[in-house]
Specification:
The complex is a heterodimer of chains A (about 170) and B (about 625). Chain A is mostly helical and about 170 residues long. Chain A folds into two domains: about 60 residues, Orthogonal Bundle (Helix Hairpins), CATH 1.10.287; about 90 residues, Monooxygenase (Up-down Bundle), CATH 1.20.1280.20. The longest helix of chain A is centred in the C-terminal third of the chain and has 28 residues. Chain A is globular. By secondary structure, chain B is an alpha+beta fold. The chains are: A mainly alpha (about 170), B alpha+beta (about 625).
Chain lengths: ~170, ~625
């Protein structure tokens, strides 16, 4: 994405965004840009509105997602991101992730829905904790890119875990 | 005949069409209220049945349905189930009476001997009939909003839009059926909150969770099954009837016998809505009759597995929306199949509350389509529909897996980019396979298109970088563009839809459908260009009224010159291309201005919101009331 998502939605480039206000902003902008608003215009203007509505929607999706929001912030600060760029996780963290993955594999076998829900709640809380740390790190005047990248790596682990848990939950429905 | 339709002096009236599996409806907004138009059958509901006579006649509606047991193979009902399907698709092998052209063609065709119409052409016959009814009553029909199941994939949507074009309709918008129903309910009841729409039709099931908030209809999640509906309930009964009739083998299940069973099953299902038990006399193999009895309890048991499939989709939609059933303010029932008592009680079990059905579940979708058509044609800003992508879009990876580009329930319009690189030295071409669905293996998903990107400059492996752009528009229709990044050259992408027709095929079908071929087609193109010119002239005049201050003097002169040239071309040019080039010059002259106007609209939309929250919601509520009052006056 070449567009700066903060600029596209007209919000401050900070990590700790008020998500409710962001949603309101997205909706207000959609009021002006949604292709339905331009249905009575000529083809060229309709295309322009479609392009800008897509840009606003895509920016909203990026900013709603903590990992992608952090990536966008780092991009603004000229720091390269992506999975290869992040420092390796600490052995303790990897150990913890491995244990949870084993628990998840077991839930997949046993189809134990309450256990799955417990795992999801736990990991969501852990992810929330990392997000809070990231928020502090980004807001700090002498924030450390290496620390931020490490936390982003952790958040990615949790994200993948939750995606997998969601797909197991899908099968259990 | 397509061209003798309109009285140009009458103002064009936008229409909404519910193209249903069992029945189709056309409606429009009159005096601020949606009303159904009478179809050729004399009622609002037109059975979605098309009969192709051996001598070339085409009948639609009740007249066509009367041939169902006499000439079952030539009498096509539930054609919606075949939209966007290829020959050999699972749908073609279910209990039914039709013969299909064999092979692996991208579009399934009914084998009627000399004629082999596709599902698109059959649907176009239904749409033509509805359009004619609208023309008869409204004099001058403008654009049409056509509804589709929310869970329709890209191929099924493309097929529906093509059917509309083939029927001579200007398709303003494809609108999701549950969203249409919510629109009709929301404006009627002026309620805010979270709602689930449970839409069980003849052949499709949708569940949609939306937030109604002061004129904004925001879909949170959607789910469903585009091959599940009342037809499947009929099949449950019909299977058992066929056994009672002694028709247990493939040979004894002739189209005539199957159509008798399906017809009797439908009658039994309808009767069981009011009666606890029904008995129907059926012809038996080898002569004589057999009395077939079914109780409501039997029927409820038989359809339970179908209902459980809907329940699973409901639970998933709730989870995708991050909600529990208790957080919903209401559940709206849509679709004829929700008249079945067990369906109602099941919905109540799933959501834990009594569902609403006070707007006729057969008509509510058409009402919503009519409202949306009216809003679009007036460029109204009272209501905003924010919908989502129903099924994830992805690209097949090297190992046959799926790389998800846009996940399900992404807000539309949506866009995403993916970058690819070459894996061999001097590789100049690249194959991409776009799929839609939730499965992890590409071959388990719906194949949408295969792209051949060609003309990549010869470079060492891994050097060329291809950026592929996906766009999903407000109709949930996908388009793809590719750019080679090292050279910056935008590559032309050859789009080969895996399913459905190409634009050229649709154009050829349009030409074939006209009595005088090419010349009529030219005339039609001219008329389309004139409609577009009129639209732009109106929009530009309106923009000059409000936003002329955003133009400097030189720009204003240029816009006015282009405006006058377009006006002249629209009224006197004799070729479509003359009108089209005037439009394109006007587009050029207004392009930058349009950007500035859009910025101003955004500023206004944002600025209005910096007021206090109480003031805000009062202003919004007033907006909705003004909407209804204004309609009342008209």
């Amino acid at each position: 994405m070449t567009v700066n998502p903060f600029e596209a939605l007209g919000v401050e480039p900070v990590f700790g965004l008020d998500l409710a206000a962001l949603e309101q902003r997205h909706r207000d902008m959609s009021r002006a840009l949604h292709p339905d608003r331009h249905a009575a215009s000529g083809a060229a203007e309709r295309r322009m509105a479609l392009g800008r509505a897509i840009e606003v929607n895509e920016s909203f999706r990026i900013l709603k997602d903590p990992v992608r929001r952090a990536e966008a912030l780092l991009a603004l600060r000229g720091v390269a991101t992506g999975e290869g760029k992040e420092p390796p996780a600490s052995p303790a963290f990897l150990m913890e992730v491995m244990e949870r993955r084993e628990a998840l594999a077991e839930v997949r076998q046993t189809k134990n829905e309450p256990a799955l829900d417990r795992l999801i709640t736990e990991v969501r809380a852990l992810a929330g904790g990392v997000e809070a740390t990231l928020g502090r790190e980004f807001a700090s005047p002498n924030s450390n890119p290496a620390e931020i990248l490490k936390r982003m790596g952790e958040l990615r682990y949790y994200r993948r875990f939750l995606d997998e848990a969601a797909s197991i939950a899908d099968d259990l429905l | 005949m397509l061209l003798d339709i309109f009285d140009p002096k009458a103002p064009p009236q936008a229409i909404g069409i519910d193209l249903g599996t069992t029945n189709s409806i056309v409606a429009h907004v009159r005096d601020g209220r949606p009303v159904p138009l009478t179809t050729c059958d004399g009622s609002a509901l037109l059975p979605s049945v098309v009969h192709y006579g051996a001598e070339g006649s085409v009948l639609v509606g009740r007249n066509a349905a009367s041939y169902a047991t006499r000439e079952p193979e030539r009498t096509i009902s539930s054609v919606k189930r075949f939209m966007g399907r290829a020959a050999g698709d699972a749908e073609t092998t279910r209990l039914g009476v039709y013969k299909f052209v064999p092979g692996d063609a991208a579009v399934v065709r009914f084998d009627l001997g000399k004629l082999t119409p596709s599902a698109i052409e059959v649907s176009a016959e239904i749409l033509k009939s509805l359009r004619q009814s609208a023309v008869d009553q409204l004099m001058h029909v403008g654009g049409a909003v056509i509804t589709v199941p929310a869970y329709f994939d890209d191929a099924q949507r493309q097929a529906t839009r093509d059917a509309g074009r083939l029927a001579g309709l200007e398709v303003l918008r494809l609108l999701n059926e549950p969203t249409a129903a919510a629109l009709a309910y929301g404006l009627d009841k002026q309620e805010n909150g979270l709602f689930a729409v449970y839409d069980l039709g003849g052949g499709t099931f949708d569940v949609t969770i939306l937030l109604l908030d002061e004129g904004v209809f925001q879909v949170k999640s959607t789910g469903g099954d585009s091959a599940l509906g009342g037809d499947d309930m009929d099949r449950e009964i019909a299977e058992r009837m066929l056994t009672a009739m002694g028709a247990t083998t493939q040979q004894t299940r002739t189209p005539e016998v199957v159509s008798i069973a399906l017809e009797a099953a439908r009658r039994a299902k309808h009767a069981l809505t009011d009666a606890p038990e029904v008995s129907i006399e059926l012809p038996q193999k080898g002569g004589g009759n057999v009395l077939f009895s079914v109780t409501r309890a039997d029927f409820d048991t038989w359809i339970q597995p179908l209902l459980e499939r809907t329940g699973k989709a409901c639970r998933r939609a709730l989870r995708d929306a991050g909600l529990s059933a208790s957080e919903l303010n209401g559940v709206i029932l849509v679709g004829g199949s929700t008249r079945v008592p067990r369906v109602r009680s099941y919905v109540k079990e799933v959501f834990g509350k009594e569902p609403l059905s006070d707007i006729d579940p057969d008509l509510v979708v058409a009402y919503g389509a009519a409202i949306q058509a009216d809003l679009l044609s007036r460029a109204s800003d009272e209501v905003l529909l924010l919908d989502v992508l129903p099924l994830s879009l992805g690209i097949e990876t090297m190992g046959g897996g799926v790389d998800k580009i846009l996940p399900r329930n992404t807000g539309i319009p949506a866009g995403a980019k993916a970058t690819f690189t070459t894996y061999a030295d001097n590789q100049t071409g690249f194959d991409l396979h776009v799929v839609q669905g939730e499965r992890e293996i590409a071959s388990d998903c719906r194949s949408l298109a295969r792209f051949k990107l060609s003309g990549i400059p010869p470079l060492p492996a891994g050097f060329a970088r291809l950026e592929v752009n996906f766009h999903v528009d407000e109709n949930n229709l996908l388009s793809v563009k590719a750019v080679e990044l090292t050279t910056g050259i935008s590559q032309s992408v050859e789009v080969k839809p895996s399913y459905g027709l190409t634009d050229d095929e649709v154009e050829q079908m349009l030409i074939d459908a006209l009595d005088h071929g090419e010349s009529d087609f030219e005339l039609r193109r001219l008329r389309d260009a004139q409609v577009e010119a009129t639209r732009i002239l109106l929009a530009t005049d309106k923009a000059l009224d409000t936003d002329a201050d955003l133009l400097d003097e030189a720009e204003r002169v240029r816009v006015e010159q282009a405006l006058n040239a377009t006006r002249t071309a629209a009224s006197s040019a004799s070729t479509a291309s003359a009108v089209e080039s005037a439009i394109s010059a006007l587009d050029d002259a207004t392009h930058e201005w349009a950007g500035r106007r859009m910025n101003r609209a955004i500023q206004t939309a944002i600025a209005g919101k910096n007021l206090g929250t109480v003031e805000q919601s009062v202003a919004h509520a007033a907006g909705i009331e003004a909407h209804l009052a204004k309609h009342g006056e008209r």
